[in-house]
Amino acid sequence: MTGQAPFGTFHMTRTAGLWLLIGLAGYALLPWYMVAGGFWSLRWIMAPLGDGASGLTHSLQGKVWLALPLTGFAIAAVAVLGRASQLTTARLLVLAGTVGLALLVAQGLLVLRDGPRLALLGTASQTGMGAGAAVTATGLLFLLTTGISSLGRGRGDAFVTGLVGLVVALVAVFVFYPMAFVLVRAFELRDGAGFGISQFLPRFFDPNVWGMACFRGTGYCGPAINSVALGVMTGAGTTALGLAFALIFTRTQFRAKRLLRVLTILPIITPPFVIGLALILLFGRSGTFTTFFADAFGWEKTRWLYGFWGVWLAQMLSFTPIAFLVLIGVVEGVSPSMEEASQTLDADRWQTFRFVSLPLMRPGLANAFLLGFIESLADFGNPLVLGGNFNVLSTEIYFAIVGTIADPAKAAILSLVLLSLTLSAFVIQRRWLGKKNYATVTGKADSGRNAALNPALRAVCYGVALPWAAFTMIVYALIVFGSFVKLWGVNHTFTLEHYKRAFAITIRNGVHFTGAAWDSYVTTLTIAAIAAPLTAAVGLATAYLLVRQTFTGKAVFEFSTMLSFAIPGTVIGVAYVMAFNFPPIELTATATILIIAFVFRNMPVGVRGGIAALSQLDKSLDEASIMLGANSFTTLRRVILPLMGPAILAALTYSFVRAITSVSAVIFLVSARHNMATSFIVGRVENGEFGIAIAYATVLIVTMLAAILALQALIGRRTLRRADRVEAP
Amino acid sequence: MKTTFSVSALALIAAFAASGSAAQSLNVVCSNEQDWCDLMAQNFKIDTGSDVAMVRKSTGEVLAQIRAEKGNPKVDVWWGGTGDPHLIAASEGLTVATDVDTTGQLGWSQNMTAISEGRAIGVHVGLLGIIYNTEVLAEKKLSVPACWRDLAKPEYKGEIQVSNPNSSGTAYTELATLVQLFGEDEGFKLLADIGANVNQYTKSGSAPGKAASRGETTLGIGFMHDMVKLKKAGFPVEIVSPCEGTGYEVGAVSVISGTPNMDSAKAWVEYVLSPEAQSRGLEVGVFNIPSNPASATDPEAPDMASIKLIDYDFKTYGSSATRARLLTRWEAEVKNAGGAIEN
Description:
The complex is a heterodimer of chains A (729) and B (343).
Chain A lengths: L8 H21 L25 H6 L8 H13 L4 H25 E2 L2 E2 L14 H20 L7 H26 L16 H5 L2 H4 L2 H4 L6 H29 L5 H9 L8 H10 L4 H10 L10 H26 L2 H9 L4 H12 L1 H17 L2 H6 L6 H10 L5 H26 L15 E2 L4 H29 L1 E3 L3 E4 L2 H7 L1 E3 L3 E3 L4 H31 L5 H13 L2 H11 L11 H24 L4 H9 L4 H12 L1 H17 L4 H4 L7 H10 L3 H26 L9 E2 L3
Parallel strand pairs in A: 3-8
Antiparallel strand pairs in A: 1-2, 4-5, 6-7
Helix pairs in contact in A: 1-3, 1-4, 1-5, 3-4, 4-5, 5-6, 6-23, 6-25, 10-14, 10-17, 10-21, 12-21, 14-17, 14-26, 14-29, 15-16, 17-20, 17-26, 19-20, 21-32, 22-32, 23-26, 23-29, 24-26, 26-29, 27-28, 29-32, 31-32
Chain B lengths: L1 H17 L7 E5 L3 H15 L3 E5 L2 H10 L8 E3 L3 H9 L3 E2 L10 H9 L4 E14 H6 L20 E4 L5 H14 L1 H12 L2 E5 L4 H7 L5 E5 H10 L3 E4 L7 E9 L5 H12 L1 H5 L9 E2 L23 H5 L1 H16 L8
């Protein structure tokens, strides 16, 4: 990749000039602070000196510190208009961006609503930054990245450096900044004695957290050990099941693939608590199956469901689809030519699978396991409903924050424990994958016939996946059933009352949505629809950078984008409230904070899926495109993106669905005006009104299913080869 | 990709910029049952003409949120939920006194107001009780419990469910009740004996009642008004008021310190203390005891006159120091002394 044309001085000054103008326009024309009624009400236009005052106007009106970012623009102007050498211009641009951003951030952190942190500044105060500040910051950021790329970093590609800069800035503001508020509390000393490191290590390695007594049969294990055990079991289980489903899909001629597909999607789109409730009705002490076995075989009715195995079962039901979604793209992507080569060399089908196909699926297996492990660690709903006396980190953290004695320090320390576990899993995964090459989609022609599975393996896949599919079907039949009966488990008279209460529409003097659920339903769908494309874009862009580009600090960059996924929702929720309730960024009680929380919480899935898909596309495709004169942006758009259909679909689907079904972060971020469906459902479940909760959940499931099918139709399948066929068995 | 990306970036910026400043009308966070929250919000709009936005959160979540939002609150009023977190909020200065007239309210409501120096006003009382599943009890041929001490009988081994006082206010009320009834040492001994029969310490205070109603446990400890609701829903359960006497919680309403909508907030407080508003609870199955003596009650609902009550000392047992001490002792002497026998 050395033959690329250098980024010329002309290009650089033109790009920099554009961002300079955009930044200046944001600074001089748009309202600097947040405006009443929202930006799009456009009411601020009518008050150019009051509510709608720009940064420029404010700095002339006495908020002199707002003139500081101008320094950055001034340097940039010198760089753009001056006729210095390319190197000097680039250096000036880097200086301009750095100085401008630093001053912008400094004034935001120093001058707060209640006055500045330094007495020097007098009684200055300001509210949360708005559109003007955001555009100004964007302009400065891209001036900086343009400068950096002209210095020859990121292979001199302004698009790539710009993208890296943007992702880094977004992750810094919406992941690191809020997390700092929580993590600093890990070092808080007891009884309000300030901060210090002396209590941190003893509390971090507390035997109450890491205890292993349950293995010796002498008591409870600590929540950290419980979480690890559960995470490994769930990760391994979901990966195995997901692989079985993926193999059935791509390597067999199974007839009811469509039905199977729906079944593998269902659990992902199920709101929390619902699976747990269904399991209790089936396997609880008075559950249907339990009673059946007790009557038929005289087995004792026990409470085995409440504990490790119950949570594990619920997590298997919930997270297998995620493993499947990651694996299906990867299994599809293993090129038939490799398998053909293997068979030509006289390997039988089992050997082909074991020594060719399976190793090529390693990135998919590793990513599926990592996702399952992390999901299990961060899962909150299932342990809450089925945990019994089995405590895991996520619930412990929740109750450290909302329990009878609030202990933010304990919550922060347990969050750090959780983070360290995720970090370890991440490192181990990277070690296992190593530096091998897994690309088989190379652009070379092949016959397009994937090897069929050998009979024994096929039997194993069917034997594992089909009973599981049947089990899933029973659980869902039960859920739908529950929404149509008076009192689930007690009085099974048919009724539509639950749906009426949730979704009644009165037609009298116009149409009125009188059902209790309408408000949260509309809010939820709107927010999810906005968040999903943003999540997919940020996630896939990051994946592209990670797989296809090299730059300094890539490993750190990769981990930082995974971070928000590993942090339990409760911690994210509280961190967001702490960080974004006050200037410089004031977002609490808005819909925006929910959207941002979803984008950065679910981004890692887009990243993982994107990485798995991209690492199968051989670099020669990019190189061919670039050799033919396309730049990296055109290559991305015309070559890579069309081949990433399933990854885009997975990212869009997943982020849409997660925005609808996630609960733990949402609980702290919903406000009176922007309530979400899950928060509504949790309220009903807590109150024992399972009927309306399940009716609402059923409507949500149907809505999401429709949305997913629409997305699938819209994006369609990628065509990797002339035809995707499986050789006849 | 670049187009998509710029569009996304612009959308993000737009969404970011679009978030408006604080809303003008009243924001209420409600810790009661969802139905009751909705009903009161609707009726407040109809009866007073002022707009109100309502969200339901548990008391622990509300306390965590208003702590994080201290100085720039996004809610104006906190209505419902057990009184202890309201008292903690009052003692931390998170809520503010209103000069709403409470002289017409029942004694325990005025007592709550006095303890919190006017910051938290008692709106309803919930009494602690025992619930059992009649079918499972008969199937296992167990005797019907009548007293707290009965729960320590060995025949109930693995049959009792109660919430964990570290996460649930209900369980803390139970702990404080037994300590006040029997004295601290005797109380902890009884708790440990009962603990030997406990199958699970649940996180949520209302979970044992629900588990008992579905036969997942035989006996549960919780608030009687929740149990009345389960019984009325058709579950095979019965409710026991312990013979030694029982404790109670006082639900409260508080106005958040620093609210920009003080007048509407006061209107809300006055509204939820009125008999017209409190009587409406029956429409949605709220069976706790309202603070206004003129409010209507259900004949099946627990009645303070016919139940033996202890003189619950909210000042002592609501304080953070006592709470921390009792919970540490509970962890050592009850939870780690056997019990919770599953797994």
